[in-house]
Amino acid sequence: MHARTAALRAAFAGSSRGAISRAGLHPLVVPLAEAEGGTVLGSLSWRLDATGDPGDAPASASEATLVEVQRGGLFVRPLGTPAHVARRAAVEADLAGGDGAAEAVGFFSAAAVEAGGLPYTRGAHAESGLSLDQFLLLRVQAQGDETRGVKVAPEEVWRRAALDLMDAVVLRGGEWGEISADLAKALERAGLQEQAERVRGGG
């Protein structure tokens, strides 16, 4: 089992909570699980008690942000809300396949629901016809609008997807060719036909 997946399981199961030393950790992080190599999965808490400590319990699911940190450093890598992280883990377990995939998908799907999110059904990504990036953006992160009861026009969803795709390739220093097909499709479904044609034509 991948080190991060094991840490996520421990975090959602609560099996390591309260047993992890805070030595060398970011002062605003409540540790939930520890992976190999000194990486700690925790909950970022902006609420301190009277002693200036974030306390032993993470924020509520609606307020919490799961993060990864390294001991001795101040860098914090945000992963998302518990519901988002659990649903993404379910998708990744589904794609990984192999022995235990069905059980892992079920575990993380249940964790997503418990955190206030939507369940993930095994095979949903394959049935969607979307690329992995599109599925994660539209069916894993776009779900926040659904759970809040806010109706967003499909064109706006695809506009956001296009922006997220462009941000992602810039942040990781990739090549535009990596996302050109997905970006053109997102722009087209957003009603931006001219921009979609420019992307397809390389202009």
From TrEMBL:
Stored InterPro entries: PAB
Domain of life (superkingdom): Eukaryota
Protein name listed in UniProt: Uncharacterized protein
Organism, as annotated: Emiliania huxleyi (strain CCMP1516)
